[in-house]
């Protein structure tokens, strides 16, 4: 007879489900340059997905970029698009900068409409990663995804 030791509890909830939607942590991947992989993460804590829209999230992040000195090199980019990079506990993309999949579905957030969908309606949960970037730069990089960093 063999016994198996399990070092985790199957009844313990995942961290994506352990916090209420009104108090989550999001990672925003601010992308300055696709070819050079110039990405800086912004961590938003205690964020309310039930009341905030994609527009609200964009405005909050842009305000942080304007006021945080560590984001000074990112201030010359016209950020206009937000897209889910990965859900918590989900598989990650092969590309280290951006997720090329899901361009035509609910992974791209509506950041133009003040009365758009709430973030929780995009299936965003605690520990979701969201990319912020310039759409024209993304389209250009997607045509020829060659990285130039050395």
TrEMBL record:
Superkingdom of the source species: Eukaryota
Entry-linked Pfam families: DUF2340
Stated family: Belongs to the UPF0538 family.
Designated name of the protein: Altered inheritance rate of mitochondria protein 29
Organism of provenance: Naumovozyma castellii
